[in-house]
């Protein structure tokens, strides 16, 4: 009787919380009563629904989802996909793994998402202060498209299926706010983190500016709490879109603008930055490279001159969202779209593969997961000249990180994985202040700083490079760092730049690190040295690509995460 009273009380509270929700409209097939019924079952049983999924069952648009199974249906390379379907055949579907979709909302009544909306983790709407994360604006769709890539319900004879078709979603609506405060960022990172295995973030700093965007201390605090306390102490896994701002020109005539390392969220040690490759396995022209890039996953790419097939997924229900019903060659049914793209769609594909992993091996920590993703990644676009081996024997490429997410390889690697049991050590080396002049208009000699490290770490998990310079035009600098083992990482390259505050070209003499960020120090992140030893001499080199603007390397400091 006491348990029944508790359940009834909780239902009453939740009903009041849902009182701010929009009423169901005629296009919505999932009513509030259905949601309450599912919630009642969850409260009564204290668990998510035990989903069953038959890979041979019907999802009418599944044949268009080349990113899940590429048979060349749109002219792509056969087998160039996330390789998830063989796992479905083994009854691995991400069952009960909760994934947070931090975005512009989530259509929790969508016919193909509602069965996989978490009923134990509460949503968060930072726009209206409720637990109901559904989109408030008619043109919002992004979070629902992301959710579909991860967890559209499989085998229900509706629409599409997600990479992890039995995983569960909880929405956080942050992007519909006109002003996002650092406290909002914090709340988005920690919402229901005790239950959330994966936090998907298909958002970040503005694209195509070539500007530096440091992350806030409150956001960092949220991620730190998630990786230490999330998922019942195993740590929430944060995946982050690398960004779509690489190319400021055309596919045929590209102009380098953004690097994923200019985004202080995508380059943070607690997240995995995800880039994008197309159906041919090559980098999408817009996808940002970077020494912080962890892996890549499939999304709309391009050939030599035109875009190729995009991603089919869920859209906001009815005439809302991206597809208003057959618009611009899209599906006639407005609940779905075949126009989703960007690293925004690559990131949830990686999240879906990770959900399959955690569903099979739930005791993995966030550190286990990120290393498994790296060690199992497939060397895509194998002829690209950017591929190298780091000193620990891992394939690395500034375009692709450690390679492409491959779900079968990921779980195969996990089957023989020795869990990481040693604690994470964070070692901050002594700062150097050389005040070394950077030769002007010189891409040959440059300025060099030798940096000796003797740390209580033998295995690098991640590196921060804090770089301080008074150079008056940062976008013309090339910054490289080479490890004691000989692995070179490029932190910044000469690139195009637009001032986001006046939308004009960045000004010579007035585009220093300080003028962009408010501080003369910027933190770069480096993933490429995974598994190496940090001890010995690191070599930092800085080159200046153009005349007139000058400056110095004022200070350098390394922070090493490892064991």
TrEMBL record:
Which UniProt keywords are listed? Answer: Calcium, Hydrolase, Protease, Serine protease, Signal
Give a GO molecular function annotation for the protein: serine-type endopeptidase activity
Query: Where does the P/Homo B domain lie?
Result: 412-563
Q: Where is the active site?
A: 103, 142, 344
Q: Which GO terms describe its cellular component?
A: cytoplasm; endomembrane system; membrane
Task: Read off the InterPro entries from this record.
Answer: Galactose-bd-like_sf, Kexin/furin, P_dom, Peptidase_S8/S53_dom, Peptidase_S8/S53_dom_sf, Peptidase_S8_Asp-AS, Peptidase_S8_His-AS, Peptidase_S8_Ser-AS
- An annotated GO BP: protein processing
Annotated family: Belongs to the peptidase S8 family. Furin subfamily.
What protein name does the entry list?
A: S8 family serine peptidase
């Amino acid at each position: 009787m006491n348990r029944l009273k508790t359940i009834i009380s909780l239902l009453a509270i939740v009903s009041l919380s849902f009182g701010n929700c929009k009423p169901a409209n005629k296009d919505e097939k999932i009513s509030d009563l259905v949601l309450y019924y599912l919630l009642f079952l969850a409260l009564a049983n204290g668990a998510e629904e035990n989903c069953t999924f038959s890979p041979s069952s019907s999802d009418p648009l599944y044949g268009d989802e080349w990113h899940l199974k590429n048979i060349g249906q749109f002219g792509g390379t056969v087998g160039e996909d996330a390789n998830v379907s063989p796992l479905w055949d083994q009854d691995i579907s991400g069952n009960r793994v909760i994934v947070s979709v931090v975005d512009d909302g989530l259509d929790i009544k969508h016919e193909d998402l509602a069965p996989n909306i978490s009923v134990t983790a509460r949503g968060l709407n930072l726009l209206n202060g409720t637990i109901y994360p559904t989109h408030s604006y008619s043109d919002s769709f992004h979070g629902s498209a992301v959710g579909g890539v991860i967890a559209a319900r499989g085998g229900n004879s509706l629409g599409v299926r997600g990479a992890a078709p039995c995983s569960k979603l909880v929405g956080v609506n942050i992007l519909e706010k006109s002003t996002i405060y650092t406290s909002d960022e914090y709340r988005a990172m920690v919402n229901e983190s005790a239950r959330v295995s994966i936090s998907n973030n298909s958002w970040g700093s503005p694209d195509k500016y070539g500007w530096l965007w440091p992350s806030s201390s409150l956001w960092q605090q949220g991620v730190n709490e998630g990786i230490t306390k999330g998922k019942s102490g195993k740590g929430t896994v944060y995946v982050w879109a690398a960004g779509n701002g690489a190319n400021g020109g055309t596919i045929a005539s590209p102009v380098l603008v953004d690097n994923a390392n200019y985004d202080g969220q995508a380059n943070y040690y607690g997240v995995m930055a995800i880039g994008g490759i197309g159906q041919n396995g090559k980098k999408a022209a817009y996808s940002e490279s970077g020494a912080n890039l962890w892996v890549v996953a499939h999304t709309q790419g391009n050939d030599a001159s035109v875009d190729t097939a995009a991603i089919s997924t869920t859209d906001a229900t009815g005439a809302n969202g991206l597809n208003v019903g057959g618009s611009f060659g899209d599906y006639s049914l407005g609940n779905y779209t075949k126009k989703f793209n960007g690293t925004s769609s690559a990131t949830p594909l990686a999240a879906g593969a990770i959900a399959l992993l955690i569903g099979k091996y739930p005791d993995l920590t966030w550190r286990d997961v990120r290393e498994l993703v790296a060690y199992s990644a497939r060397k895509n676009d194998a002829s690209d000249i950017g591929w190298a081996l780091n000193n620990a024997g891992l394939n690395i490429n500034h375009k692709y990180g450690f390679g492409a997410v491959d779900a079968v390889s990921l779980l195969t690697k996990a089957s023989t994985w020795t869990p990481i049991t040693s604690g994470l050590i964070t070692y901050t080396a002594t700062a150097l202040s050389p005040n070394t002049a950077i030769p002007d208009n010189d891409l040959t000699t440059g300025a060099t700083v030798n940096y000796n490290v003797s740390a209580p770490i033998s295995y690098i998990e991640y590196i921060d490079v804090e770089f301080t310079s008074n150079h008056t035009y940062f976008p013309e600098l090339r910054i490289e760092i080479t490890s004691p083992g000989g692995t070179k990482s490029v932190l910044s390259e000469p690139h195009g730049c637009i001032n986001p505050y006046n939308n004009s070209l960045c000004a010579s003499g007035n585009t220093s690190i300080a003028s962009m960020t408010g501080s003369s120090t910027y933190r770069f992140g480096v993933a490429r040295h995974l598994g190496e030893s940090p001890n010995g001499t690191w070599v930092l080199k800085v080159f200046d690509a153009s005349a007139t603007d000058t400056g110095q390397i004022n200070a350098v400091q390394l922070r090493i995460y490892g064991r």
